[in-house]
Amino acid sequence: MNNFEVTFDDYKGWFEKYKKNNDVREINFQNEVVKKFISAICADLDVENSEKKGPDTAKHDYLQYCGTYIDKTGKEKAFTPDLVIAKNWNWMNKEYEVEYRAIVEVKSPYQQPIYNKNYEKYGENLKNELRRHLSAKNNDKVILTDAMKWEFYKKNEEDNELVPIRTIRLYDLSGGGGKWEWKKGEQGIVENDVIKGFGDNLPYTKPIEEFVELKNFLKEFLNNEE
Q1: 50, 60, 63, 79, 223 from 99: Cα distances, Å
Q2: Pairing verdict, β 99-106 and 141-145
Q3: Model pTM?
Q4: Long-range CB contacts (< 8 A, 24+ apart) of 200-209?
């Protein structure tokens, strides 16, 4: 994916593949849309799957990038995110220094959509997930997305309110019932020197502003430039 310029058509194609195949499991959007996109935009960073916790080991500290929860037996356990974004990822993070840039919580837009509600309306389960992620020792940033809406969160020691620092929507709602359509580029006109003087100009479609914004802000967010 290095040096691969992702277009909005590329992104929509990845998404629409699983929509058309009626295979709308979260793992598909996680690995084949979100992970692929971040890996292409930030090719110098490692984007690693982490949704399934492995066995405890003396060489790996989950709490560097994970929050915790209390299980049914009253034991505190690591709450793993779907994806971890890091510089110089190494599983043996007790021996090697890893620079964590963010974690990603992915939802299926068809099974657990977030695009159809504002963050104030999220259920307590999702809010608790975000709080746990933001309580990790060495990571203070969370990306929440269903591949349609992208929200960016940052730990705020003074305020425990879950308010995204940026929200980017790649869709427009169209009517009721959660119906939506992809953002469309505005039409523009550019003069053509070859045919100039004959009264004709060339129409073109401008880039999708929100998609350009997403790519630019993702780089800023993950490189601590926001």
Answers
A1: 16, 14, 14, 19, 11
A2: parallel
A3: 0.89
A4: 207/8, 208/8, 208/170, 208/183, 208/184, 209/183
